[in-house]
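Now for our target.
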Amino acid sequence: MKLSSIISSGMVLQRHQTITISGETKPSQAVQLTFLHRTYETTSDDDGNWAIMLGSFNHGGPYEMTISGDETIVIEDILIGDVWLLSGQSNMELPVRRTLDLFSDEMKAVHNPSIRQFSVPQTYQFHHPKQLVEGGMEKGNSTRCVKF
């Protein structure tokens, strides 16, 4: 079973929105997802793709999600809250470490495990949308923040 790396331990799901969890497995494979004491089921298509829509939830956590099919994956430390997407061009390339002379006190105080950061490496896909995103989820702290 494969999941996009954004669907991983430490992830944040947007509160008050319907959530879709998807992945890849063997064709025609039964897939079961358990989250917040509810179980959802589907079957993958002929290409092995599957998707399960969860309801919307209030903020909270941490929670655990279990996804079972041809194997079982347990995703831990899931929060439900607000998700912010940051993107851009050169205006987004200034790393925080270049502003430390102005914000050193603020940077020393950064430690909030409820803030999560998912960084996507720069890659190019010219032919079709990429379903399985690469990257990694990290908790907010001053060491990670200066690299942002």
Remarks:
- The chain has a mean pLDDT of 88.
- The beta strands are 2-3, 12-14, 19-24, 30-35, 38-43, 49-54, 60-68, 72-81, 111-119, 136-141.
- Residues 2-145 form a domain with the Immunoglobulin-like fold (CATH 2.60.40.10).
